[in-house]
Design brief:
This protein is an all-alpha fold. It has one domain. It has three helices and no strands. The longest helix is centred in the N-terminal third of the chain and has 34 residues, at 3-36. The termini are far apart.
């Protein structure tokens, strides 16, 4: 195998690895959103972390993220996240 062929094979293997990682991040994020019943702010933090990781893996694909994954995550947050937690006053018995 020539050095050009080896470089192409290495680049392809690296892209496949990054795609697997992205798939795992997206799947895990979706599953936690659907099953976690997270407060809205925590769900949004989780989505922001997934976005950061996706853009670390594919820095030049922000438009693709916004087109494909952002609407999916937004729908899941709307559907499954609980309303933002309000601070609860501590219980004080009245004696």
């Amino acid at each position: 195998m020539s050095s050009v062929g080896a470089a192409d094979a290495a680049a392809l293997a690296d892209e496949k690895r990054r795609l697997r990682q992205l798939r795992m991040v997206v799947d895990l994020t979706c599953n936690v959103l659907m099953q976690g019943r997270l407060p809205r702010d925590e769900a949004e933090d989780l989505v922001a972390a997934a976005r950061r990781r996706a853009l670390e893996l594919f820095p030049d694909k922000e438009d693709t993220y916004e087109l494909i994954l952002a609407p999916r995550f937004a729908r899941l947050v709307r559907e499954f996240a609980s309303p933002k937690k309000e601070p609860v006053a501590p219980f004080r018995p009245h004696f």
